[in-house]
Amino acid sequence: MKEPIHSLLTALDLSAPGVRTDEDIFTGPSQWMPQGRVFGGQVLAQSVVAATRTVDAERIIHSMHGYFLRPGDVDLPITFAVDRIHDGRSFATRRTQAYQNGVPILSMIASFQTQDEGPEHQIELPDGIPDPETLPSAAELLSGIDHPAAEAWATGRPFDLRHVGSPVYLRVEGERTTRQAVWFKTIEDLPDDPALHRAALAYASDYTILEPVLRRHGVPWATPGIKIASLDHAMWWHRPARVDEWLLYLQDSPSATGGRGLSLGRIYDRAGRLVASVAQEGMVRFPTPR
Q: Would you kindly state where each structural domain of the chain is located, as residue ranges?
């Protein structure tokens, strides 16, 4: 098994030390990242796993809202405390706090629901989007590039990310638009556990969601002095999906102001089903021109 996938599965395989007062306690490792800060998608996914462990199997997560409170340290494990806020007939609500050194680094509330019948509609997938097999991978684009993060972007991630059009790793080409589209899937097959795929989808949802802000202003990730950090993240799971099959992430940034950028995302499977929606606001600070 390739190392990034092993790292992903290890991170999502939380341990339960058997300690519980008024909260359920779990622990999980941190994945290595080149800048020493825990990847936001990792702690989001782990928080989803922790909350899921405390509900009945027939109740499936349908939404979560999380705030990133402090940067996490990749050299330290993370402790997750789950508060069983409410259990109703159809819905259950959980709050997960992620801790390092005794202080919270993320606070998340998630809602779970038993499967139910109801009205069905969705925003349809636009036509004319090229297939992922026709697009270059990050590994192909960044091979041989001399940049501290290039190797991590190219081969260190458990997901294969393929931008429709040019990515914004090293430069921003083309129109300065607030929209972009990215295909993604894990680099290897995952186990069949649907709860694992829902958590892994939360993990991947944090990868490129703020890139429309960069694209609009023509500022790539590799810009010296750039500072970007996720502030909050919301996600809604609409329909089942496997993250080891290609998914299309459509993204748009409706606003950036006050050193913050907002991005919205819709995730579709190849059959055109809308499987999830995402919203994130992040701190975005570009270096001041001299």
A: 1-116, 134-290
SS3 content of the chain, % helix, strand, coil (to 5): 20, 35, 45
Encode pLDDT of 110-136 as tens digits: 999 999 899 999 999 999 999 999 999
Residue 20: both structure tokens together: 């519980």
Strands annotated E in the chain: 24-28, 59-68, 78-87, 91-100, 103-114, 159-163, 179-186, 227-237, 247-257, 260-269, 274-285
How far, in Å, CA of 29 to CA of 13, rounded? 9
The per-residue pLDDT of the chain, averaged, comes to 93
For residues 205 and 41, the answer to whether their CB atoms sit within 8 Å is: yes
Report pTM. Answer: 0.95
Is the CATH number of domain 134-290 3.40.50.300?
no
Pick the CATH number of 1-116 from 3.90.230.10, 3.10.129.10, 3.30.590.20, 3.30.565.10: 3.10.129.10
CB 185 within 8 Å of CB 247:
yes
The residues that are catalytic are: 206, 230, 280
> pLDDT category, 22, cuts 50, 70, 90?
confident
H/E stretch holding 43 reads helix 40-52
* Residue at 281: amino acid letter: E
Query: Which of 183, 169, 207, 185 shows the shortest CA–CA distance to 129?
Result: 183
Written as six digits, the tokens of 4 are 């990034």
